[in-house]
From TrEMBL:
Gene3D superfamilies: lambda repressor-like DNA-binding domains. Keywords: DNA-binding, Membrane, Transmembrane, Transmembrane helix. This is Helix-turn-helix domain-containing protein. It is a multi-pass membrane protein. The lineage of its organism: Bacteria, Pseudomonadati, Bacteroidota, Flavobacteriia, Flavobacteriales.
Length: 195
């Protein structure tokens, strides 16, 4: 199905005539006719107006043109493992992958947002825990100030950090496997920073 057929199908599915679509999208009737006759291709503002009038997204209209690259999506998902070297790398690397292909590959936009939301949430949890530890608040809460500081008590402080790292690795690996198998990935919990 080419783009002109796609626009026509979406218009008919919504029960609009070319005139009504032109009116709702604030485009000229001639523009709508040219698009549906495959004489021109909507881009930029025209594409956005069509998408709004057809109650869909520009990606949905262009979906037939967007390539699928399972290898790139798998690599994007694995790039979140950069957090093992430095926590912020778990955000920066997927962000680069996302910016490069978010509009060019099918599912890259959704996957990138999911990874970024999850990694930002994870970093916030990790840094919040370190702030609590270094402020001495955790020691007061857990009564560590009365105990002699030794290897066992220090290890107890880092158990939540170790668990956070294990959880992050597990989520990334399981989600990467799902991405590779074209199944629905699950990066949770995650704050909705990128919507």
């Amino acid at each position: 199905m080419n783009l002109s057929q796609r626009v026509k199908e979406l218009r008919c599915r919504k029960g609009l005539s070319q005139e009504l679509l032109a009116e709702e999208s604030r485009l000229s009737l001639r523009t709508i006719q040219r698009i549906e006759n495959n004489e021109s291709e909507p881009r930029g503002d025209t594409l956005k107006r069509l998408a709004i009038a057809l109650d869909t997204s520009p990606d949905e209209i262009l979906d037939w043109k967007i390539l699928e690259d399972k290898g790139y999506l798998t690599l994007m998902s694995l790039s979140a493992l950069g957090f093992l070297f430095f926590p912020i790398l778990g955000i920066i690397l997927p962000l680069i992958f996302w910016i490069l292909k978010k509009d060019k590959l099918k599912n890259a936009n959704e996957l990138g947002k999911s990874i970024l939301n999850f990694e930002i949430t994870w970093c916030l949890l990790l840094f919040s825990y370190f702030i609590i530890i270094f402020s001495g608040l955790l020691g007061v809460i857990m009564g560590y100030l009365d105990n002699i500081v030794g290897p066992a008590s220090i290890l107890k402080l880092y158990i939540p950090v170790i668990l956070l790292y294990i959880y992050n690795i597990t989520v990334i690996i399981l989600s990467t496997i799902k991405v590779f198998k074209n199944k629905r990935h699950s990066y949770k919990p995650a704050l909705k920073i990128f919507k």
